[in-house]
Structure formats: C-alpha cells, structure tokens
Write a structure and sequence with these properties.
Strand order of the largest sheet: 1-2-5
Shape: elongated
Order of helices and strands: HHHHHHEEEHEEHEEH
Strand content: 5-15%
Oligomer: single chain
Radius of gyration: 22 Å
Number of strands: 7
Helix content: 40-55%
Distance between the termini: 35 Å
Number of helices: 9
C-alpha cells in the first residue's frame, strides 16, 4: 500500500498539482488529472485509488485548518459496472488441473496450482515461499512474506519480497497429503535455485536478500503476479 501511494504520487501528482501551493488547488485541477487518466485508458480501479489518496490528503489539510474545502471531494469517475466474482467450481478445478498436469507446455507449473488450490494462497504469497517456510516434519507451511512489484525508477529494482498484505496474513497452513507429496517430489527433482530477491520493509528500504524459492517460472526466475495471471489466461484459452 505504501509503495502504491508513492507510485501514484510520482506518476500523477508530483509534476501536476504537486508543484502548486495546496491552498491554491481547485477541484478542476484534480479533475484534470482524472480526465487525462481516462484519455490514457487507465483502469477504473487505478483512478478510484488515486481519488481515495487525494481525498485523504486534502481531508487532513482541512482538519489542520490549512484549507477550507477539500478539492478532491466528488471527483467524477467514469461509470463502469463491476464484474461479479464467482468462485471456481469443483469440476472446473478438475478440468483445469488435469489439463495442466498432462500438458507438455504447462506441466512445469502444476505444483504452483497445487499450492494455490489446496492452501488458499495469494499469488504473491505462493511466489515468495522458500524451502525454509516448508516444515515437512510437522506438515506446516509458514506464510510470512509476499512478492511485490516496484518502480525501478523509484527503488532501483522491479521485484522484491516484503511483509504480506496485512498482519493477519501471517499464518501457518497445514499441508494435506497432496501438497506434501507434490512439494517433496519437487524438492527432490529441483536443483537449488540461485535466484535472489531483495527483502524490503514497508517503506521499500532493502533489509536483506532472500533465496531458496520453492517455485520459479520456466526461465528460472521468481514469479511475478502479472506473469502468473498471463499464464492462467493462456491455459484457460487453450
């Protein structure tokens, strides 16, 4: 979240209203930013997040008696209907997993889907798993980090491991027999990956490096969420 806010500021605010005195910023100035985002084809969620960030900033300024009115209030976003999400059904999982397991092109990713479907992990949490997190003796997997994307211009790197989405996301998950067998087979078959990622705090400062990742893509690199989503899309299309 902190990283996203910084990215929003550097991308949309810094060189626009970021150069103005806060008391001189009008609603039209804020709306102009949104309008340009619409013209550039930005997603509704990105615009809504930016609006939320701006609203918080200006509300704080109102509370501190720096400005009288919040110029980001009631900004107009394009009307879009949100797609209703539905959970994948059992027979769809069987079809999907059967295809991945027996397909020469995609079978390498079968263990990743075993982990996602059986453990209920986010993609970033799956990507961040290291062998140190897997306790075969007690059948426990510890979830304590996630892989995030970063703007190289701001941080000097594009991917890093960080704390998970919230404090409640740190948890221990019991392995069932399917997960246990899959991971034991993967560990015996896999050569130790030498890929390393920075480990950063919530402000994006590097606090160390992490290696020994359980899952890597076909190029031997740690998965990023966009790449994995594209993989899912290709499999579904096939």
């Amino acid at each position: 979240t902190c990283t996203n806010y910084k990215s929003y500021y550097n991308t949309y605010i810094k060189d626009t209203i970021g150069k103005m005195q806060i008391a001189k910023i009008k609603k039209a100035d804020c709306q102009r930013i949104i309008n340009e985002m619409i013209q550039n084809g930005k997603k509704h969620s990105t615009m809504a997040n930016l609006k939320s960030c701006l609203n918080i900033v200006f509300e704080s300024a109102v509370d501190d008696d720096i400005i009288v009115k919040n110029p980001a209030k009631n900004l107009q976003l394009p009307q879009t209907e949100s797609k209703k999400r539905t959970a994948i059904e059992g027979h769809q999982i069987d079809l999907f997993m059967g295809y991945v397991k027996n397909n020469e092109r995609y079978s390498y990713s079968y263990p990743e889907f075993i982990a996602l479907f059986n453990l209920g992990l986010r993609i970033g949490e799956m990507a961040a798993l290291t062998w140190e997190d897997v306790d075969f003796k007690n059948n426990i997997i510890t979830i304590n980090k996630t892989v995030n994307r970063y703007r190289k211009k701001d941080y000097g790197f594009t991917m890093a491991a960080a704390s998970p989405k919230s404090k409640t996301s740190i948890r221990s998950v019991v392995m069932n027999n399917v997960v246990r067998k899959t991971l034991m087979k993967l560990k015996m078959q896999s050569t130790v990956s030498d890929v390393r990622l920075p480990y950063v705090d919530d402000s994006g400062h590097v606090r160390g490096h992490i290696s020994g990742f359980v899952f890597v893509n076909s190029l031997g690199n740690v998965w990023s969420e966009p790449c994995f989503r594209k993989l899912i899309g290709r499999i579904i299309e096939q």
